[in-house]
Write a structure and sequence with these properties.
The chain has helices spanning 17-30, 61-71, 106-113, 123-130, 132-141, 154-159, 161-169, 197-207, 250-255, 269-285, 321-328, 333-352; strands spanning 4-11, 36-43, 49-52, 79-81, 92-95, 149-153, 175-179, 189-191, 210-215, 220-229, 234-235, 239-242, 260-262, 290-299, 305-311. The chain is α+β, with helices and mostly antiparallel strands. The structure holds adenosine-5'-diphosphate and magnesium ion (MG). The site of adenosine-5'-diphosphate has 20 residues, from β7, β10, β14 and β15.
Length: 359
């Protein structure tokens, strides 16, 4: 059987560039070479595309961040530059990009235009899953539990700050202030006192023109669930993250060794079933495909489950929550990569059967 050429697009312009490099390194290491021929396609932080001679090998985001800090600048990748996708003869693409300019529908749009099958959700679901305000509207429209929140754009803040503050006051304290379109907790603040609010909003506005403020879920456990499939997705056993810091911020995620994960999470059977049901609902609410990691906040006191967010291209190293939850549920990393590529091909094939005109 002819091997399929799979473009692995990694790196990217977002703050999650380093995580993406390590996700790609894991894919290169574990992809089934009997079936697939992976091709490295790297996007630098400035948006330049290159074809590196060597695939990435770093195994932790901390390693990539430390390398970048030590060199004082981004590493120059050797190889050809600005590949035209069409000349690479790819059978499919695995765009393992996290955050803006990759997880948000931009690369998905390029691949749609080029008619190349790709892993993960399409343009709309990717964009909706990236935008915390749009995501919440879609979740709420489907009756899914989200915490109280208020969203606004820079214009609202500049023109009528008092109205914005009045709306936020209704949420009480503490609140989480977040840029609508980012990831890895970048730009997020937990606000506990009224005087911290304005600086937190200004920080968030420096990362995005749209901001989401959420009522904090009290004493929250962080529960996650992995989803895999297209129209009839399967769910993994849920896992739990126990952050080393007050909340799961950037340091706790990538630099601090102290955060722990518990997989499977220690939850009553009924809660496991509810988390799995809500994960599929969240996946369908944005019309996702391929994969997603759905994150919950579980109030320890009341047991209430809140849907926090859906990630349509979650961290994908062998030690990432997504792959570890599947491993605990009986699917190996290697099989996961294989299934994701097959799901991409199936979705693309299905789309080819659609009429494109009335003629
Ligand atoms: N409403 C909330 N209540 C309690 N903790 C929250 C809330 N929103 C965010 N957090 C904390 O902040 C972290 C990052 O927020 P999240 O919305 O998941 O952003 P990101 O997309 O950057 O991961 C969460 O993992 C959690 O620790
Ligand atoms: Mg998160």
């Amino acid at each position: 059987m002819k091997k399929l050429r799979i473009g692995i697009i990694f790196g990217g312009r977002s703050g999650e560039h380093e995580v993406s490099v390590t996700s790609a390194a894991s894919i290169f290491k574990h992809i089934d070479r009997e079936k697939y021929d992976p091709v490295a396609i790297r996007i630098e932080k400035d948006g330049k595309w290159t074809l590196p001679d060597q695939p990435p090998t770093a195994m932790s985001a901390a390693e990539v961040i430390q390398q970048a800090r030590a060199s004082g600048a981004k590493a120059e990748a050797a190889g050809a530059s600005d590949p035209a996708l069409a000349t690479l003869n790819l059978d499919a693409v695995f765009p393992i990009l996290h955050g803006p300019y990759g997880e948000d529908g931009t690369v998905q749009g390029l691949l749609e235009l080029a008619n190349i099958p790709y892993v993960g959700p399409g343009v709309l679901a990717s964009a909706a899953g990236m935008d915390k305000a749009v995501m919440k509207v879609l979740f709420a429209a489907r009756g899914l539990p989200v915490c109280d929140w208020h969203g606004f754009v820079r214009r609202d803040w500049d023109r009528d700050r008092e109205s914005v503050l009045t709306a936020i006051k209704k949420l009480g304290l503490p609140v989480f202030v977040k840029p609508a379109n980012l990831g890895s907790s970048v730009g997020i603040s937990k606000v506990k006192t009224p005087d911290e609010l304005v600086p937190a909003i200004e920080t968030a506005l420096s990362f995005d023109r749209k901001v989401v403020v959420e009522a904090a879920v009290p004493d929250a456990r962080e529960i996650e669930c992995a989803v895999l499939g297209n129209d009839d997705p399967a769910t993994s056993l849920p896992g739990e993250v126990i952050p080393s810091r007050e909340f799961y911020d950037y340091e706790a995620k990538y630099l601090d060794e102290g955060s722990k994960t518990v997989i499977p999470a220690d939850l009553p059977a009924a809660t496991v079933a509810e988390v799995q049901r809500l994960s599929v609902e969240a996946f369908r609410a944005i019309d996702a495909a391929g994969l997603a990691r759905v994150d919950f906040l579980l109030a320890r006191g009341t047991g209430t489950i809140y849907l926090n967010e859906i990630n349509t291209m979650p961290g994908f190293t062998t030690i990432s929550m997504y792959s570890k939850m599947w491993e605990a549920s009986g699917t190996s990393y290697r099989d996961l990569v294989d299934k994701l590529i097959q799901l991409a091909l199936a979705r693309h094939a299905d789309k080819q059967t659609l009429k494109t005109s009335a003629l």
